[in-house]
Amino acid sequence: MSDSLQTKLSQLHEALQNGPTPDKFSVLVGFDGFVDEIIEVVDKRSDFQTYERLGTIAEFGERISRAAGLSTNIEFVPKAIKLGGNGPIMANALAGCGAKTSYIGALGHPELNPVFKEFAEQCQKVISIADPGHTDALEFGDGKVMLGKLMSLNDVNWKNLHDMLGDEGIADMFANVHLVATVNWTMTPYMNEIWEGIEHVVPKAEGSDKPLFFVDLADPEKRKNEDIREAMKIIESFSPYYRVVLGLNRKEATEVAEVLGLQLSDAASAVSLEEITKALAEALDIWCLMVHPTHAAAAVRDGEYAYTVGPYTSKPRLTTGAGDNFNAGFCMGLLLGLSLEQSLMLGTANSGFYVRQMRSATFPELKDFVQLWSEKGTDEF
Q: pTM (2 decimals)?
């Protein structure tokens, strides 16, 4: 590990030890909700108890391709059932660190689905307006394939939200917090109308301490280009009300750059993380633009570019939800007043803990993980 990284991690740990704590901040997250079934895909079976799993997405794709014009049988082995959806996972991570968390979304209606019971008990307030979707999350060594059933998310719309809360209730929940996070735009078909409705009832805010407004598109490849462009315009229009933050993984950054027609030195998928992050930040009129591939993260805020590597492991125990835990850690860093680089480091630390421990960290555990990372550096641990 370089002396520079060790010093920066030590400074981050000191800032977390001596600065404000997450319980000083209130957050509101929405609007999706899924029951996630974590699944391994069988390659070969030795007996009824023992099997080898397919290790990569490419192997899974080859298995399917070989069945073209024929047929095949592919065995799934469920490993766990857990709360899912970008919103609940991110909110669960924030609540677990102590933030005063409220949630609006698809957690079961009229009764909460049992998988969300423990999560709801951690929240200050939970409002569910629809049943959750269901995701079969096929986990491989090099990523995951998410097979979603999401018809119930059609009920996550402005009418149902407004019928339940009214103008005053919505304005109160969305204005009197430090952070609003609206995630999984791709699978929430009426997110644009929800955004527009919020914009009409939330009062404008002044000064540099406006609440944060975090957006995660969540893999917009299947949405039309004009839908993505419209979403970008609506996101920009929130600037009079919030400090707007758009978070993208590397694949999403490529897709948005292509839709916006950005002029880059090479194909959007091939340019450096720094180039695509700066180009997107320049193209979008928002407070902060962040991009996080699996091994690192970068962001631009007010013209400042920041970058960090992450705490690497070649054997993550759970990857579904890693990005949402990164988002939670990054937003937490912004709330705590950390520098942009430190906020990115906190995001990668929160994600790093999650993929190793298969759960989100508490704030003391997150601080300890940062300290461990400072000791181990880029060596795998």
A: 0.90
